[in-house]
Amino acid sequence: MDISPHWWKTLFDEIYLVTDARSVCDEELTLREIDLLETCLKPGKKDRILDLCGGEGRHSLEMARRGYERLVVLDYSGFLVGRGKAKAVGMGHKVHFMRSDARQAGLKGGKFRYVILMANSFGYCLSDEENVGMLHETYRLLQAGGGILLDLCDPDYAAKHFRPFSLHEANEDVVVIRERELSRDKIITRESVRSKARGLIREGTYCETIYTEDRIRKLLARVGFERVKIRRNFSSHKEAGDYGFMTDRMIAIGNKGKHAR
After folding, report:
1. 131 with 123: CB under 8 angstroms?
2. Which parts of the chain register pLDDT below 50?
3. 54, containing H or E segment
4. pLDDT 10s digits, 58-102
5. How many CA atoms lie within 13 A of 52 on its CB side?
6. What pLDDT does residue 86 have?
7. Contact present, 106 and 52 (Cβ < 8 Å)
8. Residue 207 Ramachandran class (φ > 0 left, ψ -120 to 50 alpha, else beta)
9. Which pLDDT value is given to residue 200?
10. Which residues have CB under 8 Å from 143's CB, separation 6+?
């Protein structure tokens, strides 16, 4: 399948909130994901936390509801950032939203205690060097002793349960058809979004890089992260089903050395 290296610049809009509503609009799922984050990182309420590629900030808004005070959401999608800002105001939460490229965030280095990349938002770039570049940027943004949490697609599950075709009804009108191709370390998906009343709404192709446990350990170590820990077989959906890259997950955690710059 042909795919643009910059597919992620245009995918995440109002249509995405329909096609992926079973995950990104599921409040109970978000609660369970933040429960896991708190278990893994044990963050303090006053820790400065960056929600990188955080979309409309569903994770940060839930953390704000739980009393976390210093939250920043960064995403490339102007639509999702604007929607998140409006939600934060409506909920009375002080969450800072900014639109930027996660590879060059434009933020001061050494500013954050934790950086989180939730919901398989790491691995969108076709080039491994670009994905590693995002890890370097994350490392730069962290304080000495700070930590990163990557929420990734579980590689074993992806290989064992790979489905080249899926179809689901996003709502009473919209049907989502996905054709998938497993190519080396990537799953490439052609997605067609159709309205029963209006016909084709959108068609496009996107991808996710699949990291084995050994490979993500080596990449994190290459960047400088220490004490890397992996948690496998995390599935926050209560009901079985094909949720694409969100079906079964692997959590990777690493730390920036206490004396690192």
Report:
1. yes
2. 237, 242-243
3. none
4. 999 999 999 999 999 999 999 999 999 999 999 999 999 999 999
5. 29
6. 98
7. no
8. beta
9. 98
10. 48, 110, 111, 112, 113, 256
Give the three-state DSSP class for 106.
Answer: coil
Q: Which token pair is 247? A: 């079906």
Assign 3-class secondary structure to 237-258. Answer: CCCCCCCHHHCCEEEEEEECCC
User: Residue type for 121, please?
Assistant: S
- Please, what sign has the CA dihedral across residues 25, 31, 34, 40? negative
C-alpha distance from residue 244 to each of 113, 165, 169, 248 (Å):
31, 10, 14, 9
The rounded distance, in Å, linking the Cα atoms of 39 and 212 is 23
DSSP 13: S
Task: Look up tokens 């800072």; give the residue.
Answer: 96
**DSSP label at residue 197:** T
Asked if residue 128 lies in contact with residue 218, where contact means CB atoms within 8 angstroms, the answer is no
Residue given tokens 């005070």 in the structure block: 69
β-pairing, 112-117 vs 48-52, is parallel
Tracing tokens 């938002």 back to the chain, one arrives at 121
The H or E element spanning position 16 is helix 16-19
The two tokens of residue 257 are 């050395």
* pLDDT reported for residue 261: 72
